[in-house]
Specification:
The complex is a heterodimer of chains A (about 260) and B (about 230).
Chain A: E1 9-18, E2 21-31, E3 36-40, H1 47-54, E4 64-72, E5 75-76, H2 84-90, E6 91-94, H3 105-117, H4 121-134, H5 138-141, H6 154-166, E7 172-176, H7 184-197, E8 202-206, H8 210-216, E9 219-224, E10 227-233, H9 234-239, H10 244-250
Parallel strand pairs in A: 3-8, 3-9, 6-7, 7-8
Antiparallel strand pairs in A: 1-2, 1-4, 4-5, 9-10
Helix pairs in contact in A: 3-4, 3-6, 4-6, 6-7
Chain B: H1 7-43, H2 46-77, H3 81-116, H4 125-146, H5 150-158, H6 160-180, H7 185-217
The chains are: A alpha/beta (about 260), B mainly alpha (about 230).
Chain lengths: ~260, ~230
């Protein structure tokens, strides 16, 4: 499943404002393909703002503006000429609360492909099966594809949302606290899934759960007060961070 | 975000404080036993030697307590970064201190055997000096660890060579005696064992010094890892 685009993200001197309030200051950060990068930091540090900027979720927010560049395979996604719908096919997103459409499991997954390229019935069946398999939901869902997605458990719904994103064959998957509402077993399934999915994708995950960040990510970026304080290999960040502020945050010396 | 630590954080850090106290107490006891064992040897005091042998159980018990508390904290608090380095090092240090206790017992046993021998040799004064150095290395290593003082930790590591050199030199002196007069072979070997045990105590203090550097700086300096000589 090697995509034509490798999905490499290069963020260069990116700043972001909500009206007069500056939320991000001069962030430069590379997000490598086939890598899970965890964004950590206290509430309000800017990590979610940063994540959402990657697929331009702030476009419709009044007063929002930014400077700098976010390059996806070389192209600046912030450029006004970029088609946001196409961008969001390439950069999928999963949120904290699972948000399946009130439709069947099948229709949820088929939604993107139907909109984007009007595939044949059998093509669509294949796409749906493939996406559900990649999201590790096929075995549980295959006998109830026509039933409502809202009947699934919380963990299943979240995997359905991942399958829905995967059906568009994205290069990048953004996850904003994807497991914070799930029990430990469902959380573990999501984490295992990320491990599988990173073979084909660039994955960026925001999490408040430091153990989760340590378990699932290859690289970790620590944000504080809108600034990127430290970015490095996850094992280094969690055993011997270079910055005093990183150490203080991950050992709970400030919350 | 506030600068105030959470209640859970305070509880955890109270327990880290307890752990430090226990390591310090254990180290103080281990130092005492090294001193007492060498004293037993030099003054031919079998009572002191027996006391060292009995006190070893106390050190063993302290080791188990520190280990148990550390495992609990690892499981319940899932510490990271500096706290993780502290707890991993604490487990290693408690095991090193237990070994120091064993070396004190070995010295005490040598003292008892020497006492029972018909031939007397005057123990080399350098043994007392080695014991003094090993104890002071141990005290400084623990101090470096609880204060996370990397410079002091490195200083302790740098003092090991001098103790090694004393051991080598004592070996040559004893060898000369033993070659000159075969009656001194038995006591000479005992004194050599004592010297060897003291040299090992200094090595263990060096390990603890390395742990202090690891805690303070997040760097591994043992086996020359730092300068890439492997």
């Amino acid at each position: 499943m090697t995509a034509i685009h490798p999905g490499a993200i290069a963020v260069e001197e990116f700043s972001f404002w909500y009206g007069a309030k500056q939320a991000l200051f001069d962030i430069s950060l590379d997000l490598a393909p086939q890598t899970v990068t965890a964004l950590i930091g206290p509430s309000g540090c800017g990590k979610s703002t940063f994540l959402r900027s990657i697929n331009r979720m702030h476009d419709l927010l009044p007063g929002a503006r930014s400077s700098g560049r976010i390059r996806l395979d070389g192209e600046d996604v912030l450029d006004r000429g970029v088609d946001v719908v196409q961008l969001r096919q390439r950069v999928g997103m999963v949120f904290q609360r699972s948000n399946p459409f009130p439709k069947s499991i099948y229709d949820n997954v088929a939604w993107g492909p139907r909109l984007n390229r009007n595939p044949s019935r059998s093509e669509l069946d294949d796409l749906v099966e493939q996406a559900l398999r990649r999201a590790a939901l096929w075995d549980e869902a295959k006998d109830r594809l026509r039933q409502s997605a809202t009947g699934l458990s919380g963990g299943q719904q979240q995997r359905l949302c991942i399958a829905r994103a995967l059906a568009n064959e994205p290069e990048v998957l953004l996850l904003d606290e994807p497991a914070s509402a799930l029990d430990p077993i469902a959380t573990q399934r999501i984490e295992e899934l990320l491990w599988e999915l990173k073979k084909d994708l660039t994955i960026v995950i925001v999490t408040h759960n430091l153990q989760q960040a340590a378990r699932v990510s290859d690289r970790t970026a620590f944000f504080y007060l809108g600034r990127l304080v430290e970015h490095g290999a996850t094992d280094q960040i969690f055993t011997a961070p270079r910055e005093e502020r990183t150490d203080a945050y991950i050992t709970g010396r400030f919350g | 975000m506030t600068a105030e630590p959470t209640a859970g954080f305070r509880h955890f850090h109270d327990q880290l404080g307890t752990l430090k106290q226990r390591l310090l107490a254990m180290s103080a006891r281990a130092e005492e036993l090294v001193e007492l064992s060498v004293d037993a040897l030099l003054t031919r005091d079998t009572g002191k030697a027996q006391a060292v042998i009995e006190a070893d159980r106390e050190i063993d018990r302290m080791e188990l307590e520190v280990e148990q508390l550390t495992v609990e904290l690892l499981a319940l608090q899932q510490p990271m970064a500096r706290d993780l380095r502290f707890l991993i090092s604490a487990i290693k240090i408690t095991s090193d201190l237990e070994r120091v206790g064993d070396h004190a017992v070995n010295i005490a046993q040598s003292a008892l055997r020497l006492h029972a021998l018909p031939t007397r040799v005057t123990p080399e004064p350098s043994l007392a000096e080695m014991a003094r150095r090993a104890r002071s290395m141990l005290a400084d290593a623990l101090d470096a660890f609880v204060r996370a003082d990397g410079a002091l930790g490195r200083d302790v590591c740098g003092r090991d060579d001098a103790v090694d050199a004393m051991h080598d030199s004592l070996f040559r002196v004893l060898l000369t005696h033993m070659m000159g007069d075969p009656r001194t072979i038995n006591p000479g070997l005992e004194l050599l064992l004592v010297s060897r045990n003291l040299e090992r105590v200094a090595d263990l203090a060096t390990n603890i010094g390395e742990d202090a550097v690891f805690l303070a700086e997040g760097k591994q300096i043992k086996h020359h890892a730092e300068d890439g000589r492997g």
